[in-house]
Amino acid sequence: MIDTQFIEELASKAPTPGGGGASAYAGALASALASMVGNLTVGKKKYAEVEERVQAELIELESTRHHLLELIDEDARAFEPLAAAYGMPKGTEAEKSAQNEALQAALVDACEVPLEIMVTCLEVIESCVFMARHGSVLALSDAGAAVVIAKGALQAASLNVVINLGSMADEERASLYRGQMEDLLAAGNSMADEVYADVLERLS
Q: Where does the record place the Cyclodeaminase/cyclohydrolase domain (predicted)?
């Protein structure tokens, strides 16, 4: 039976889990699907030449999957001080100053956690590239589906970075985070799109 607890929590009016947690969860699903492709490949004579690499990718995918699941909780924890800061009183200049100080501190983790989700989703995409090119052809559509899901997770996580950068006063830090985000998107989207096009052509 499918455990729907996360889905039900996501659907509720509670602020967490939200987009960041959903991104991490989607990335974990992509990792699991890519692992399925690998597990359908190992032990087959036809793929003996890539057996060792497939095994290594399976270990990597298990690691990224667990990390992404951990990042669901990390994202929720990062949101708590952010929500608290937005809720602080701003009636006096002293209160405004204290509120802004708390907000700026909270924005750091609120950006760094989704960036970490993006980094890990990119690792999943890289594994999907290998699985699509060298995994069992019987699971080629699954490899393609995995890379599409991972790309979606990557892009979704980037939106959490964007919205938080909009409130960050530290322009140097914001520029650094924005550059990291854009680099991750460029690399991940390019790889994912190439794999999807290749899988689609091969399936057709």
A: 5-182
Report d(CA 157, CA 190) in Å as an integer.
Answer: 17
Whole-Å CA distances, 27 to 44, 72, 106, 149, 153: 27, 10, 24, 7, 5
List pLDDT tens digits, range 15-44: 999 999 999 999 999 999 999 999 999 999
Q: Is 197 within 8 Å of 132 (Cβ atoms)?
A: no
Buried b / exposed e along 33-58 (16+ C-beta atoms within 10 A) = bbbbbbebbbeeeebeebeeebeebb
Closest residue by Cα to residue 184 from 142, 165, 156, 204: 156
Domains of the chain (ranges plus CATH)? 17-203 (1.20.120.680)
pLDDT digits (tens, 9 = 90+) for 137-183: 999 999 999 999 999 999 999 999 999 999 999 999 999 999 999 99
Single-letter amino acid code for the residue at 67: H
On the question of a cis peptide bond just before residue 15, with omega within 30 degrees of 0, the verdict is no
